[in-house]
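Budget justification note: compute hours in this period were largely spent on complex prediction jobs such as the one shown. Inputs:
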Amino acid sequence: MTEREERPAETMAGPARQAVLRYEARLVFSGRGADYFRIWALHTALNLLTLGLYSPWAKVRKMRWFAQHTQLLGDCFDYHADPRRLLLGRVLGLALLTAYSLAFYISEISGWLMLVALFALAPLLFASSQRFRLANSSWRGLRFGFRMPLSRVYLIGLPALLLWELDRFLEKGGMSGDDWQWLLLPLLVFLGLMPWVHARLKAGQHRHAYFGARRFAYRVPVRRFYGVYLKLFALLVAVVVPLLFLLGLLTAALRRPDAAQSGWPAFHLPLTLLLMAVVWLLVWPFFAALMQRVVWSGTRLGSLRFVGELQAWRLWRLTLGQMLLVILSLGLYWPFAAVAIARYRLQSLALVSRRPWHEHRFLAVPAAGGLAVADASADLFGLDLGW
Amino acid sequence: MAGVELPLAGQAQWFDGRVAQAQAVRWCLDAEGLSLWSLEQESEHRVGQRLTGPFARAALRMRPSLGLASVPVDLPDGSCLWLPAGMNLAWDALGHRPSLVDRLMRSSLAVLAAVLLIVSLSVWFEREGASQLVRIALPWLPRGIDVRLGDAVEAQIEATWLRPSELAEPRQQALQMRFAALLAATPGIGEPAPRLSFRRSAGTAAGQGAGFNAFALPNGRIVLLDGLAEALSDEELVAVLAHELSHVQRRHSMAALLRAVGLVAVGGAVLGDFSAVAAQMVASLKVLQHSRDAEREADHDASLALRRLGLPAAHLVSVWQKFADKAGTAGGASSADWLSTHPSTEERLQRARALASEEAEGQGGAAAVVGP
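Corresponding output:
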């Protein structure tokens, strides 16, 4: 605990000019790009040489490096995952993904069976990966945790899955065609429900998270998600329309007489991907900043409040500048960019308390079976879906 | 641990795992192992109270991280001791040997070697590695997979964008005979024998000769669309069919699929840390480049087939001329070369012209030898 963080910030409240004590602390990221470059270079080389088998070990070391360089009140976070569990999770995840993408090609029945399996498994996997990530993270020697009742897992997971598979259901139900209403209707349903589903997922993530035995609290009205998505939509329109116009001009200028081969849908794929990358780069920082402020400002831990202070414009300028350097350096600047962006994102999360920090006592979950600390990760599936 | 004298002691920060609070402790490593002692009572009792331990050295786990001021040591009771970094003596005493990768990370030479390895492996894979790996792997893949894949695609496109042909029956038969002659003249035709079928593209109304194209599926089926069949002469269509036959024989689809798998894997290894989406994008751009190379290969095979059948290469020139004319009138969209599955028609036209003039010169030379 440093002097600076312990000093209360005095604010005047009310006509009585009564000083209200307010303690503020911020996440601090101390990692250097040069260090991460070393980690990244060796990990990438080893991943290439081992055909990806090394990646769980790489991921654990990377996560640990980021966690151990993230400090709060002078003490750092830590990451404890076992790479062998990650490897198992990845093999399982890959098998499921392969089965999922092939099932409908094999037969209609196997396709539907796979879909049922997906609906049964995916919410569990989502909860499991949350649990894995949090249970393997710690601060000041105390583990985080994630405990969500099974009924909540499905209540939150199933609507998200239904929305994700919406087009398949419409198609299999014979409700599809080239008519505009069959294109517009699913899109409208999707856009209309997406913020709601996202709000529920976030609420589930934050409400069932623990630090030691203390549970996080979360309260954000769903309409604020609709607000963020509305802004996102407006921004998308503002970005995509001029971009498409520009693209139209470009193709007109580049017109070459080989249009005869453009019948294959694959022809447009790379162009679409490129367009998506540009749009993502232009829009993502705004979305991330808005989301961080909405989500974290509604999160509490005991009497601790969180304040998201990510600024859309700053994140946008930073991301664009860093990505430009990444492209100019043919990718070699990436580790520096990753650190710069992570630093800004982490450092714009603040904690606010009305009591001095040392009065907050966070205790571990009472342990069973003689161990001083309950091994939260013992019962885990070991699945981490984030690659 | 040779050269380290026990007991060894020092101060460090300790988290007991029960409460989120740091405690300054005194650690001591002796023959029994590592124990932690409290600092607070030391002045009164000379010796502080033992907080935890002793733990055998083998049960301790150090987890160093690059650029960190202290090193966490996990103790068997779930608590964690943070030793100041740079205490080599303590490290040795604890019996900790940093993993090979952790040691390599501290060596600039190793990092430089890693960067060079990444760059050279990516460049090699991009230039020839992918093609070589595909060449090695392709014979191991049974033809049956091509056929099954082709059947699946065939069912899909028959249902969605193909309709029965409206080409006159005699013309169809004439072209089938040409195709049979082409097959007979082509060495190494495998099982199942390639089949030619006539179709109309579904997008346009009947009678408009829809679909100015032809394509081959990996199961050996070659589809000629009415639009192309009506616009081209029989000889020109032989050139087109020879091109498509080359795709089937050389298993270009399967090679592309293998290459895509390899590219996604390599792209994922190099770019995965940044973004899986970026990796996917780079991979798909590379797949397209190889697709253009495959087209060039098929064009070359088509010219060889024409020669075997005794047809002049000029037919290939007129095929590409017609494609160019068609595109000019249709005014369809075009795009940069690196975004395209096929080489540009101009390039193919030029190549065919060069071939035709070469052939003409060659014949002239032959005539000069034979003639008077």
